[in-house]
């Protein structure tokens, strides 16, 4: 609520007072503010790696290039920061395509088990490196109506989060079951650091992170969950997060069962 007060002078004591205008912040204003915040966030997220890249290039120009050791290290920082910017721009493009609703979707029946298996397989190396175990239990006969590339992205975002925020010797499990004639419920559970209760309501917001430093260090853009939510909702599903700080996190989402599917 915005309140404006204007002093009001009347001729008599009784008439002196103030005119107070109360009005709701309109949807338009809210949208404008969200857009400004978004642009500010994007600028900041791009400026940070750019500044790092620039300073390492300057160090190389100032002579570090003469030392092969330094040069190699600095170039690897530059390469890492460039990767981050590419990831960020890729995620931003994905979000803007979801917003614009002009993407063509290749929705068709697919075996959920195959999708989960392939997604898990893509993380084999990373799981080994981080000493985190992943298991999945998905019945053979679940057929869902989805765009497989889009669903791949949901699994990639959610599994990579589970790995990023789960310390060594942790476990990740993926389960799926039919919950109604029309929907399948998929759950990705980890035994990681969890999310504080006070952060849960904003957790799907763009660029929202519990621990910015940890997210950045793990290569996060802060956009993974908003993209996952966008994709699930486009499929007519819903997504939610339950979490207990220090215990772990469970991300659950629904997907449409393919008509005529088993
Ligand atoms: P990021 O790129 O930072 O991981 P996301 O949008 O994917 O961005 O997630 C937003 C934030 O939610 C993360 O920064 C992290 O704080 C929290 N988060 C997401 N998934 C998990 C998880 N499995 N365990 C703990 N925290 C998580």
From TrEMBL:
Subcellular location: Cell membrane
Domain Histidine kinase span(s) in chain numbering: 41-259
Region forming the signal peptide: none
PAC domain: residues covered: 1-37
Designated name of the protein: histidine kinase
Organism per entry: Tumebacillus lacus
Covered residues, full protein: 331 to 592 of 592
